[in-house]
Design goal:
Helix content of chain A: 25-40%
Strand order of the largest sheet of chain B: 5-9-4-1-2-3-10
Order of helices and strands of chain A: EEEHEHEHEHEEEEHEEEH
Number of strands of chain A: 13
Structural class of chain A: alpha/beta
Strand content of chain A: 25-35%
Largest interface: A-B, 79 and 96 residues
Oligomer: heterodimer
Shape of chain B: elongated
Distance between the termini of chain B: 67 Å
Largest sheet of chain A: 9 strands, mixed
Bound molecules: flavin-adenine dinucleotide, adenosine monophosphate
Radius of gyration of chain B: 23 Å
Radius of gyration of chain A: 21 Å
Distance between the termini of chain A: 58 Å
Largest sheet of chain B: 7 strands, parallel
Number of helices of chain B: 9
Strand content of chain B: 25-35%
Number of strands of chain B: 16
Chain lengths: 264, 330
């Protein structure tokens, strides 16, 4: 199978975040970036399927120069090559604009399957994969917790997570877009051999012009939805913080739970 | 005047779940802000009685797509019905409950009719004539305000618990909104063939009965580091639970998961250690009477829902807490 995997590089949300000077997003300088969590699972699913069927995985990512580091990591894990949608015109896109750009890049090749994560941990639209599917005219499934290739290779048995501990099982014809949920598999670690091999693999840049896209239809200019501000929740709505070293704080907490909250 | 549609998600048997009433409340509130009346949209098969129930509320209309092909949910059928209806009626807004089902088909629908798409909204505000929607970003650490530009319909899915279901405006005793067939086309063929549904592992452990829960997150650092959690749980007589990554990594079995794809609990005491407080986790535990958070990051969103917090390394705090609990219990 020829498999494409879309990965996004996102800020590590465990890092200390600061609101940027324009108030519209966090300050990205000095921020550690990681591959979006569910995308790591999408990559693993793609690599495993490619191994089973004797195919290959090509990775796609839209973002600025820093994204190369994330792409290099996916190459070390086993992807054959990468396509980097790198153009200031792509910046600030909503799910529809980002999906449009990625779909244009994906449509240049003949894939049997496109895998994405289910949600990006920074903007959290949960929709980019479905938008890609719409442009390609392929079926899609969101929140995929299982993929099995069926006899003949023309369809997949796909498990979709639903609320309340129930899964939907469906048959999906190939080609398709599957939006993978974290927890579907156990992502591998890069080997030293893989890391060395990755150095020689191709990361092909693609601009809006390369993809024949009108710059007004992608990125911020091509988006209907725009973030005008980000802010931390109001102070005051938070917890009573118990100060001191571990021992002192623990003692205070137990006292509070006994005397104030009366739950011990 | 704005035209506002609300697509209600129905249960298998045709009942309206709480989250759909909340979406209706959001639609009515939006209609009140923009001028106009919200209109409900129902998809399914055999909808007469539920349409009657929904029509008892203050709505411009109840549009019903009643069709055998809509008995079960598939995105192909839903988009097949809603896309032409939206193109014909041109609503300004379509509001959806934010559920795993709506996230499955709404972005695809948005792509097909070129809608603006705002998912997981928790509210809106009007500033200087401009409508701003609020939604969590960056793992729930920050709240973003977003605006819509350009022409055409806007889709908004609203997060559970954001608009109170009991704020839905009903009509008086005799009143009934008009029920109409949703204009136009038959559903197109499904793009996935449903083979069936299966229970995920079955809940062997019923955490809803526990009075005290010690919940652990990715911050614990590994399956081999759970000892401090077990010790505290034992001292407190508590059940152990976890956030999703702990389960995904195989550090604890799946029936210990709390959150939107796990169990929903409301114990007297919920102690969350090494859990950041993502929305999908919070929906499963924010009804707890007393919440304690232990996290090394003072900016972790769990501290916004917790009553008490300790900022520190759980591997130091939990053993200290175990000792303090033992001492207090004598
Ligand atoms: C559709 C969907 C459904 C989901 N369903 C669920 C669900 O049912 N339940 C669920 O929980 N999640 C669910 N999630 C995942 C959710 O979005 C979060 O990713 C998850 O809850 C994060 O888990 P966490 O807090 O353990 O990990 P992280 O977000 O990685 O947080 C780890 C925390 O530990 C702290 N920490 C690290 N080391 C230490 C230390 N030594 N001492 C103290 N603190 C430390 C860090 O500061 C951080 O705050 C779902 C996601 C999606 C997209
Ligand atoms: N800039 C991007 N580059 C590559 N893939 C992306 C990008 N943005 C989103 N995706 C993919 O779409 C999924 C859903 O993202 P979102 O719709 O932003 O929640 C992610 O998990 C990625 O797989």
């Amino acid at each position: 199978m020829r498999i494409a995997v879309c990965i996004k590089q996102v800020p590590n949300t465990e890092a200390r975040l600061r609101v940027g000077r324009d108030g519209k997003w966090v300050e990205e300088e000095d921020l550690p970036f990681v591959i979006n969590e569910s995308d790591e699972y999408a990559l693993e699913e793609g690599l495993a399927l490619a191994e089973k069927t004797g195919g290959e995985v090509v990775v796609f990512s839209l973002g600025p120069d820093r994204v190369k580091e994330a792409l290099r990591k996916t190459l070390a894990l086993g992807a054959t090559r990468a396509v980097h949608l790198n153009d200031p015109a792509f910046a600030g896109g909503d799910a529809l604009a980002t999906g449009r750009a990625l779909a244009a890049a994906l449509a240049r090749e003949n894939f049997d399957l496109v895998l994405t994560g289910s949600q990006s941990d920074d903007v959290r639209w949960g929709g980019t994969g479905s938008v890609i599917a719409g442009h390609l005219g392929w079926p899609h499934v969101w929140l995929v917790m299982g993929v099995e290739l069926e006899e003949g290779g023309k369809s997949l048995k796909v498990t979709r997570e639903m609320e309340s501990g129930v899964n939907e099982i469906s048959r999906v014809p190939v080609p398709a877009v599957l939006e993978i949920q974290a927890g579907i598999n156990h992502p591998r670690y890069a080997s030293l051999k893989g890391i060395m091999a990755a150095k020689k693999k191709e990361i092909a840049p693609a601009s809006a012009a390369d993809l024949g896209l009108d710059p007004g239809k992608v990125g911020a200019a091509g988006s209907r939805v725009e973030i005008v501000s980000v802010a931390f929740p109001d102070a005051g709505s938070g917890a009573q913080i118990l100060e001191g070293d571990a021992k002192a704080a623990a003692a205070k907490l137990v006292e509070k739970l006994q005397k104030e909250a009366r739950v011990l | 005047m704005a035209k506002i549609w609300v697509v209600l998600q129905l249960r298998e048997g045709g009942q309206v779940p709480r989250i759909s009433w909340e979406a209706l409340a959001a639609g009515q509130k939006l209609a009140a802000a923009l001028g106009g009346k919200a209109e409900a949209v129902l998809l399914g098969s055999g909808l007469d009685s539920v349409a009657g129930e929904v029509a008892k509320n203050d709505l411009g209309a109840v549009h019903v797509a009643d069709h055998e092909a809509l008995r079960g949910y598939t995105p192909g059928a839903y988009v097949g019905v809603l896309a032409p209806a939206i193109q014909a009626a041109k609503p300004d807004y379509v509001v959806f409950p934010h559920t795993y089902q709506s996230v499955d088909y709404v972005p695809r629908l948005a792509q097909s009719v070129d809608a603006g798409l705002i998912t997981d909204a928790t509210g809106f505000e009007q500033t200087g004539g401009e409508l701003l929607w609020k939604r969590p970003v960056l793992g729930g650490k920050l709240q973003a305000k977003v605006r819509v530009k350009g022409e055409g319909v806007v889709f908004v899915s609203v997060q559970a618990g954001s608009f109170p279901a009991d704020s839905v405006v009903k009509l008086g005793e005799e009143g009934e909104s008009s029920v109409q067939a949703l204009g136009g086309t038959d559903p197109v063929g499904a793009d996935r063939e449903i083979l069936g549904y299966e229970e995920v592992g079955g809940d062997q452990v019923d955490l809803t009965k526990a009075d005290v829960i010690v919940a652990v997150g990715r911050g614990v650092g590994g399956a081999d580091k759970m000892g401090v959690v077990e010790d505290l749980a034992k001292a407190l007589g508590a059940e152990i639970a976890a956030s999703r990554p702990v389960i995904d990594n195989g550090w604890l079995p799946r029936d210990r998961q709390i959150g939107s794809s796990g169990q929903t609990v409301a114990p007297k005491l919920y102690l969350a250690a090494g859990i950041s407080g993502a929305i999908q986790h919070l929906v499963g535990m924010k009804g707890s009477s007393v919440i304690v958070a232990i996290n090394k990051d003072p900016g972790a969103p769990i501290f916004n829902v917790a009553h008490y917090g300790i900022v520190g390394d759980l591997h130091e705090v939990l053993p200290a807490l175990t000792e303090a609990v033992k001492a207090a219990k004598g």
